[in-house]
From TrEMBL:
InterPro entries named in the record: SET_dom, SET_dom_sf, SET_domain_protein
Domain of life: Eukaryota
PANTHER family: SET DOMAIN-CONTAINING PROTEIN 5
Polar residues composition bias: residue spans: 55-74
Record's protein name: SET domain-containing protein
Pfam families recorded: SET
Biased composition annotated in UniProt, kind: Acidic residues: 43-52
Segments of this protein annotated with the region Disordered: 1-77
Domain SET: 81-230
Organism: Pycnoporus cinnabarinus (Cinnabar-red polypore)
Length: 380
């Protein structure tokens, strides 16, 4: 494995720079990152549903956009996986590389864990060894061929026994457990290296007990497939320090390879997006200002070639529009949030289903009509 990909993925920080689900504004309204699946009943809901179902911009059984659409199989239209394991220059490690062009939103990999473990202190070298004893010989061989970032002590990290060290290096969070989240080993996904400009995103399917990895953008043949281990909105110095402290390696991705004014501009864009993410939470009583901040954040994310936070910002814009009863623009924003969510987590994810519901009936949102009527703006 590439030395860039040696961290304990089970302890990666959240991609969100804030810990709460709800973004509280100065008004009584709450700007919510993750939409609820429970709509608010409205007196004219039946009439609204009939009108919306006939509208040309409302969701149908077969979604209009092509982004995020996927076949019932795991790998687009081909029976062979769209990746291969190969050396990842300039290091001596390996990574996953695209064997053909992969469209944005397509499933790159779907994988079930060979075993899972509870969060510490219930996870020990003995519990990992016991789980491994239930795996096949080939799975055991592949497991012990994975990187161990805990072979020797380093600042803030103690040396671990081999089985536990490999688990902490390669495990991904997958489902809830008492006291925290379970983590599991995904033998193929363990080869995904880190990038601060990732092209792959993961999402856990609780019902199927599988992790799905989707393309965040169009990927060309031969391109390395990477996800991010840390928050992408820090400066390069912040990201480097976090990776070095938590995981023991330095990133060599395209974003971290910048220097001079290019690096300074990239740092400014990412830190501005992080600041805007917080500031939007304070705009519940000022939807016009909040929407301006959303548009700026989306433009900066596009300049950084980052998809992260797109669905969240678009859902924020939807909520600003619903606050002032601007349902036409609200539908445009939540459709954009739905498309972004489909690309990263699939059509059937809870967020995608909620966005689709609000696209059909924006009046179902709890913030609908709380402020004086106004007309805002849709996406650029």
């Amino acid at each position: 494995m590439d030395p860039r990909a040696q961290p304990s993925r089970s302890t990666r920080p959240s991609m969100r720079p804030v810990s709460g689900t709800y973004r509280h504004s100065r008004a009584s309204a709450c700007i919510v990152h993750t939409p609820s699946l429970e709509p608010i009943a409205t007196a004219d809901e039946e009439e609204e549903d009939e009108t919306i179902c006939e509208s040309s911009d409302s969701p149908r059984t077969s979604p209009l956009p092509t982004h995020g659409q996927e076949s019932s199989g795991s790998y687009m239209d081909d029976s062979l996986p769209p990746y291969k394991v190969a050396l990842a220059p300039p290091t001596d490690g390996v990574g996953l590389f695209a064997t053909r062009a992969i469209a944005k939103g397509s499933v790159v990999l779907g994988e079930a864990p060979i075993f899972t473990q509870p969060p510490p202190p219930g996870r020990t070298n003995s519990t990992v060894m016991a789980a491994l004893s239930q795996c096949t010989r080939d799975e055991q061989r592949q497991y012990f061929n994975l990187t161990n970032a805990y072979k020797a002590p380093r600042p803030g990290k103690r040396e671990l026994l081999p089985a536990l060290g490999i688990f902490e290096t390669n495990a991904l969070p997958c489902g809830k457990a008492r006291g925290g989240r379970r983590a599991g080993i995904f033998l193929v996904a363990a080869r995904l290296n880190h990038s601060c400009q990732p092209n792959v995103e993961r999402s856990w399917d609780e019902s199927a007990q599988r992790m799905t990895f989707r393309a965040l953008r169009d990927i060309v043949e031969g391109e390395e497939l990477c996800m991010n281990y840390v928050d992408v909105l820090g400066t390069r110095a912040q990201r480097m320090e976090e990776l070095r402290t938590a995981f023991g390696f330095e990133c060599a991705c395209v974003a971290c390879a910048m220097d001079g004014e290019d690096l300074a501009a990239s740092d400014r864009r990412r830190t501005t997006v992080r600041r805007l993410f917080e500031e939007v939470a304070l705009c519940g009583s000022e939807p016009t200002l909040g929407l301006r901040k959303v548009k700026l954040a989306l433009r900066l994310l596009k300049e950084e070639n980052l998809v992260h936070y797109e669905a969240s910002f678009c859902f924020d814009a939807f909520q600003f529009c619903t606050l002032v009863s601007d349902y036409a623009n609200a539908k445009l924003w939540v459709r954009k949030a739905w498309e972004a969510s489909c690309n990263t987590s699939g059509l059937d994810s809870p967020a995608s289903r909620a966005f689709k519901m609000y696209w059909a009936n924006p009046r179902a949102h709890e913030l609908a009509g709380l402020l004086q009527h106004a007309t805002l703006h849709g996406p650029d």
